[in-house]
Design a protein that fits this description.
By secondary structure, this protein is α/β, with parallel strands linked by helices. The chain has one domain: Decaprenyl diphosphate synthase-like (Undecaprenyl pyrophosphate synthetase), CATH 3.40.1180.10. The protein has 7 helices and 6 strands, in the order βααβαβαβααββα. Strands 3-4-2-1-5-6 form a 6-stranded parallel β-sheet, sandwiched between helices. Helix 2 packs parallel to helix 3 and helix 3 runs parallel beside helix 4. It is globular. It starts with 11 loop residues before the first strand and ends in an 18-residue tail after the last helix. It binds 3-methylbut-3-enyl trihydrogen diphosphate (2 copies) and magnesium ion (MG).
Length: 247
C-alpha cells in the first residue's frame, strides 16, 4: 500500500481532529452524528499509527475552550469519551497501547475522571504505542498550571530560579516525558493551533488536510506521513549535513 517503510517515520504525531460538525452539516445530520462518526476515525487512526511504528499519537479530543459550546454538545462529547473508554479500553490494552491523558484534571466530572485514571492505570505497563488523549486541554492553561507548580516549588526552596531551563519547564508540563511532536496534523482545512501544544510545537512540522475528521482514513494518514517524510527539518541549523572532518 505504501513504501513508507521505516523511512523517516515520526516518533510522535499529534492530531487536531477538526470538522466533525461540518461533516454532519454537509449531510444534513446533527453535529452529534459527526462526533459519533469521529470516534470511528479515532479507532482507525490509532490502528494506523501502531501499524507504521509511530511511538506516540496525541489526539486533541476536547479543549479547555470547548466548554463554551452548547450544553447538549458538551454532554454528547462527554458521553462519547465515556463510551470510547468503556468499549475500547480492553481492546487497546490487548494491543499493548499505553494511554496517557493530558489536560486539567481538577474539576472534572466524577463520572469522567475515574475512567481516565482507569485507562492510564490499566495500560501503564504496556510497551506498544502511547496514545495521548488531550482532554480538557489548553496549552496556555497547561503553562499556567506549570508556572504555578514551579513557583510553589521555588517558594518551598525545592528549585532555584536559575534552574528554570527549557528542559525544566518541559518537565512541569502535562507532557513531561513525552517527546515533542514531530508532526502535527489538522483536518478540516483550518490552519491554526487553537491552543494545542504551543510549547511542544516549537519545531513540529505541520500538515493541514482539507478532509473533515470523520473522513480521515488510513490512506489520508499515510499520505500525511509521506509528506512529512519529504520535509527537511533544520532546527535552526543549515541545510547540508556537516562533512566528517579528519575521519
Ligand atoms: C472537532 O470537530 C471535535 C471537537 C472539537 C471536539 P468540531 O466539533 O470542531 O467540528 P467543526 O469544526 O465545528 O466542523
Ligand atoms: C480544536 O478544535 C479542539 C479540538 C479538536 C478538540 P476547535 O474546533 O475547538 O477549534 P477552533 O474553535 O475552530 O479554533
Ligand atoms: Mg472545529
Amino acid at each position: 500500500m505504501t513504501n513508507l517503510a521505516s523511512r523517516n517515520v515520526p516518533t510522535h504525531v499529534a492530531i487536531i481532529m477538526d470538522g466533525n460538525g461540518r461533516w454532519a452539516k454537509s449531510r444534513g445530520l446533527p453535529r452529534s452524528m459527526g462526533h459519533r462518526k469521529g470516534v470511528e476515525a479515532v479507532r482507525e487512526a490509532v490502528r494506523t499509527a501502531g501499524s507504521v511504528g509511530i511511538g506516540y499519537l496525541t489526539l486533541f479530543a476536547f479543549s479547555s475552550e470547548n466548554w463554551s459550546r452548547p450544553e447538549s454538545e458538551v454532554s454528547d462529547l462527554m458521553g462519547l469519551l465515556k463510551i470510547f473508554i468503556r468499549r475500547d479500553l480492553a481492546v487497546l490494552h490487548k494491543e499493548h497501547v499505553r494511554i496517557r491523558v493530558i489536560g486539567d484534571r481538577s474539576n472534572l466530572r466524577d463520572d469522567i475522571l475515574p475512567l481516565l485514571i482507569e485507562a492510564e492505570e490499566t495500560t501503564k505497563q504496556n510497551t506498544g504505542i502511547t496514545l495521548v488523549i488531550a482532554f480538557n486541554y489548553g496549552s496556555r492553561d497547561e503553562m499556567a498550571r506549570a508556572a504555578r507548580a514551579m513557583a510553589a516549588d521555588a517558594m518551598a526552596g525545592r528549585i532555584r530560579p536559575d534552574e528554570i531551563t527549557p528542559e525544566r519547564i518541559s518537565s512541569y508540563l502535562d507532557t513531561a516525558g513525552i517527546p515533542d511532536p514531530d508532526l502535527i496534523i489538522r483536518t478540516s482545512g483550518e490552519e491554526r493551533l487553537s491552543n494545542f501544544l504551543l510549547w511542544q510545537a516549537a519545531y513540529s512540522e505541520f500538515v493541514f488536510i482539507p478532509d473533515f475528521w470523520p473522513d480521515f482514513k488510513r490512506e489520508t494518514f499515510l499520505a500525511a506521513l509521506e509528506t512529512y517524510a519529504g520535509r527537511e527539518r533544520r532546527f535552526g541549523r543549515v541545510s547540508a549535513p556537516p562533512l566528517a572532518v579528519g575521519s
